[in-house]
Amino acid sequence: MSDVLTEMYEQTMAGNAPRVLELTKQGLEDGLTPDSILFDALIPALEEVGARFERGDYFVPEMLIAGRAMSGALDVLRPLLADTGAETVGKFVMGTVKGDVHDIGKNLVNIMLEGAGFQVIDLGVQVSPEKFVEAVKEHQPDILGMSAFLTTTMPMFKVNIHELNKAGLRDGVIIMVGGAPVTQEYADVVGADGYAADASTAVRRAKELIAVKRGK
Fold first, then answer.
1. pLDDT of residue 90
2. CB 165, CB 133: distance < 8 Å
3. Strand segments (E) across the chain
4. Residue 76's domain is classified under what CATH number?
5. How many domains does the chain have?
6. Strand pairing partners for 94?
7. Considering only 54-68, 72-86, 162-176, which range has the smallest mean pLDDT?
């Protein structure tokens, strides 16, 4: 791995946004591809931040600043990834359910999805069932992602899916759920199509589900 990528990895982990941005530009000048910057430095750094968070070595602030450091670099890379003909993998509408204001995990998933070539429409937190229904009508996404961090807000998955059914939209969209207390079993019970325990799995699962839907 080049020195630029190694330092970019370390500085993303440290959440040094100005330096990460500088290194992104320097890497591009040195002939590194946008793909290489993304997959060899930025995403591995975020995955390591996530692993440290799970072990209790990192806390929410460290996750946030690492995410912010990466999103600055993504602003530079996004148009370049588009230019290289990296077509959008799919459209992903994302939101944290009503009653829940947690967005760290959701934001990390969004960054990873964007990095992997998805077009992400983030509805934010405290998203009501009506707002999810409106967003699916308006954006016609391939996937609708719903996040819940509290056991008390997890039942909103079922409410939201019920509302999509009522609106006649359920069959046209893949539904993914996630969040700290959510399990595969719970996702099955509420009738979701997919579940992911972390951001990197979410990206892989999203790609798999789209491939199945498109019959590839």
1. 93
2. no
3. 91-96, 119-122, 143-147, 174-178, 194-195
4. 1.10.1240.10
5. 2
6. 122, 145
7. 72-86
- Distance (Å) of CA 192 to CA 4, 145, 160, 170: 41, 10, 10, 10
9 vs 36: CA distance, rounded Å: 12
pLDDT at 127 over 70: yes
Beta bridge partners of 95: 146
Q: Which two tokens stand for residue 215?
A: 């019959």
**Residues 202 and 173 occupy one common structural domain:** yes
How far apart are alpha carbons 119 and 203 in whole angstroms?
12
Domain extent for 17: 3-83
pLDDT digits 0-9 by tens, 16-66: 999 999 999 999 999 999 889 988 998 888 878 878 877 889 887 887 788
β-pair partners for 190: none
Q: How far, in Å, CA of 73 to CA of 81, rounded?
A: 12
